[in-house]
Known about the structure:
This protein has 687 residues and is of the alpha+beta class.
Amino acid sequence: MSDAFLIEIGTEELPPKSLRTLAQSFHDEVVAGFLNLNLTPVHSEWFATPRRLAVRINELPSRSPDTQEIVLGPPASAAKNAAGEWTPAAIGFAKKQGVSADELELIDSDKGPRLGFTKTVPGAQTELVAAHVVNEALAKLPIAKRMRWGSSRTEFVRPVHWVVCLYGDNDDLGTIFGLTASRVSHGHRFMAPEPIEIRSAATYEEDLLAAKVIVDYEKRKAMILKQVQNLAATYSAAAQIDNDLLDEVTALVEWPVALSGEFDRDFLRVPSEALIASMKEHQKYFHLQDSEGKLLPRFITVANIESPEPERIVHGNERVIRPRLADAAFFYDTDLKTLLADRRIVLEKMTFQHKLGSVYDKVARVASLASFIATKIGADASIAARGAELAKSDLASELVNEFPELQGIAGAYYARAEGLGDEVANVIEQHYLPRFATDVLPDNLEATAVAIADRCDTLAGIFAIGEIPSGSKDPFALRRASLAVLRLIIDNNLNLDLAELFSEALNRLPFDVPPNSLESLIAYLNERYYARYEAQGIPITTIRAVINQGVNEPLDFQRRLNALVAFSDMPEALVLASAYKRVSNILAKADAVKPAYIDELLVETAEHVLAKALQALKPALDKAISTKDYSGYLTHLASLRQPVDVFFNEVMVNAEDAKLRQNRLGLLATLASLFGAVADLKELVIS
């Protein structure tokens, strides 16, 4: 038989940024706990509000099936004595298992015949194990720091005040967190503070709704989104919905009521990003924009109460946000009094890394490297250098000190206010792009040059001092920086050589770099290709086939990889890859072989045919390589399938005649050089 199961843990206000994670993990651990006892849940779901975590299973078996277990005892040789009587060992084993010695039987085992018996293990009863499953699940939740309360030794993310646990009609299911489970829950702290009774697992949402609690997290989130959007529409505005903020607000309220307030229009002279950051981070407000995308002097807050006087809540929020915005305005006005160039001196006091100097030192290196890169990619080197020189100056500003996420953005505002122009301002703002894997790229080559230079300097410096990332430790985010470099080069179709870039970066460091620093950097960047392309569904063997070629130009790498992916779908691909592997193995076992052969020493028809095919194909292959038409190259290569197949079927490479043998090896060496020109094709062969 099956019945519905419900567990609710009532607490003090849970941390909003981790509420969803806690709720999902609680659900997963409870379900896993029952599964481990062969109690299979059917249709389970989780609920969460600021004051509760809950899991409901619509169908849970009342008990798991009985199981049979073989229990082994002493060896058969020790079962009976010479008189045929049970030995003390056999009698003791039987007594320990609660059976008579006569019930024992001989059972084969990996250690030979042994005494034993098969016993029936009763299945787990849900009503008896439910509390244990829940306690185990709670102990496994991803909580960084647990707390204690009262005199109890119990620990959880917040103090626990009540526990609801129901299985069918039964609410007497044991003790959880030291509290006796019952069907008594609590509604909204202010609008329905009295204890309420949960009639059943099926009526859980309905019972709490009557107590002014919308317990379904996703329903509550959807309500908030709809309320905010509808309220914004009444002002002919669009609410800007950040999903992380929406999640956080959902985790802060049990009965959402969206309300709109306003602030002094004079604050709009402050960079909108600063105002938005203040409203979002400090007050959890949604900001509004007009049809042109400009910030409006209005916000939407979500209250956790249905007040008869909502204007008082609005007024309170307006009163609270004013000093926040005033602080931002003060920081901005103060910052405008100092030029970005004058702020550079402050960077001398900011340590980038103690062996690599100050942020000022880094800026000087990046500016020089950015100028070099700009020249290589056809950008304006003077704009790139000037932008790089000022790119980090806003780190010394009051606004960025208060809102670190505005670095670059604040600097761009200050550059325009100084009259430095949009070109320099754009470099300052965009050189941080991309900030994450799916972020946008800079929209101009000058910012792109600085973005590449900034990351190359960091990578070169950290590698040169031996702080190479290992395992999960990557304090300087070098993996992210490496992927950004690859993306900046490839997605912008830039012909840049990593070896040249990092050589330039290493040469600008303030000390003699250790040997092999460049090789280590290139190898590290090569490893990032796996992360980039595996995410696109490209097999690791295909990626490795190009990495093995030692390609230092990311754009060239991309072209080769694209060609190889297309080639891999051709029926000739695996045949030629296998042939290349066979050729490589033969050549590896031979003495040093030069890729040369003499037509006069070609004896067999098959080797004549192969040689002619190679000669006929070489002009087209050479042209394809010179123009980097790798798809065309591999397509031409596919035409060698038949002559290669025939050659291996009809020609003995290791002929007894030394001249014939060397000539055939030379022919294979020529073939190998063609096979390996674009990628290491033998990687396509599954060992």
